[in-house]
Amino acid sequence: MRVRLKDYKVQFFRYPCRRLLIVLNFDEVFYIIAMKYYKKYYMLFVIMIIFSAVNCTEEFEPKTEIFESLLVIEGNITDELKRHEILLSKTFRFEEENSSLGESNAEVMVVDNKGNEFIFEETTPGVYRSISPFQAVSGREYTLSIRTNDEKSYISSPMILPVKNEIDNLYVERMTNDEGLEGVGIFVDNFDPSGNASFYRYEFEETYRFNAPSFNDEDIVLDSEDPFVIDFVPRPQNKRTCYKTDVSQGIIITKTEDFDENRVSKFLVRFIGVDDYRNSDRYSILVHQFVQSREAHSFYENVKSFSSSVTLFSQTQPGFIEGNINSVDNSDENVLGFFQVTSTTTKRIFFNYRDFFPTEPIPPFFVGCESFAPIIVPIPVALINELNADRYLFDGETGVNNIFEGPYLLVPKICGDCTVLGTNKRPDFWED
């Protein structure tokens, strides 16, 4: 099909409260005229635009009235031999939530009561990693020392390594949660016969295998715009199945202090709903169990009850929560955060969706994957624009070609190429 595309003509329309940019060209005008007469819902759409322009109201932008800039410290060293991390940042105003406020160019060091010094270096803004691997040792006290770029010094209370306690059992059961949603629960059991491990915190890394729901064996490519020429090429098969890893974001804690024995029994670490696509094929979870001090447990408990945010230290705090880190220079200065030393153990399990839902339909994909067919008559500008933007992939043919519907179905790229969301490299730990 040989078609000469018309030059673009651009018009701007500005409304009092919002700005609407409409880009029109000859082909799009033709399409609009056609739709006016043949698609009754198009006029309704135009009316809605006009109504919103005439009746729009000023958007409300909340602002923080009272704000105190605080240093935020998240530090945890364990009995694992590795390069440990200390995170430094600053609190932010509500309206600055997307700001990057990592505290850079600080001097960070951990010292034990035997005189050993472990120096940390900044790897990315606000993230400090120990230069050499080390591990916390039982019976020693560890203290965090920080000097910021503006010459302010901070120091933590001395912390000792709690006793180690293994995860006895990590398992999955089909369940209904408190909100009435069907799914699977991932539970932990453990027991400390010594009676010295009473406070626990959990983190997890979940890795799931998933398939692109609209994968097609072919891709459509634009060979030429004028004349309009397309071609079909094979889509790589390794874009059908991928893996993705997410880490826990909330605060997961429990304690056995008030129990008759130090036993954690059927503690829910993770719930996955039956409609969650992460559980659509094969799923694995690595659970980290930290035995922590009473002081650390109280701090995390306060943070959890104080804020509904899903992250630990990035939320705007409605008040001050005292940790174990203080300013050396100014006793009245508030510092948000906690430095802790924990013993840790991990356990991993795998399971399939069909292990627990043998007859239920596969959960819906993360986003909607509705396909559409851009018109190519009288001029294929809509299809050309979408192919050049690389936002959609080929999803099949319609068998028709008119002013209402084109012959080629397109689907959002995320639905036909799994590498948009994950990686097609199989993790080393993965078991089929």
Number of strands: 23
Percent helix: 10-25%
Q: Measure the end-to-end span.
A: 49 Å
The radius of gyration is 28 Å
Counting H and I runs of at least 4 residues, what is the number of helices?
6
> Which spans have pLDDT < 50 for at least 5 consecutive residues?
1-57
* Silhouette: globular
Structural class by secondary-structure content = mainly beta
Biggest pleated sheet? 14 strands, mixed
Overall pLDDT, averaged? Answer: 83
Name the beta content range: 35-45%
Helix/strand order: EEHHEEEEEEEEEEEEEEEEEHEEHHEEH
Transmembrane segments: 20-38
InterPro entries: DUF4249
Protein name: DUF4249 domain-containing protein
Keywords: Membrane, Transmembrane, Transmembrane helix
Q: What would your notes on this structure say?
A:
The protein has six helices and 23 strands. It has helices spanning 26-38, 40-54, 294-306, 353-356, 381-389, 413-416, and strands spanning 9-14, 19-24, 71-78, 85-90, 107-112, 117-124, 127-130, 141-147, 153-156, 159-160, 169-176, 182-191, 199-211, 218-224, 229-234, 241-247, 252-255, 263-273, 282-291, 325-327, 335-352, 392-397, 408-412. It has 432 residues and is mostly beta strands. It starts with 8 loop residues before the first strand and ends in a 16-residue tail after the last helix. The protein has a domain at 9-54. The strands form five sheets. Strands 3, 4, 5, 6, 7, 8, 9, 10, 13, 16, 17, 19, 20 and 21 form a 14-stranded mixed β-sheet that branches. A three-stranded antiparallel β-sheet has the order 11-12-18, with no helix packed on it. It is globular and about 80 Å long. This is DUF4249 domain-containing protein. InterPro entries: DUF4249 (IPR025345). It holds the Pfam family DUF4249.
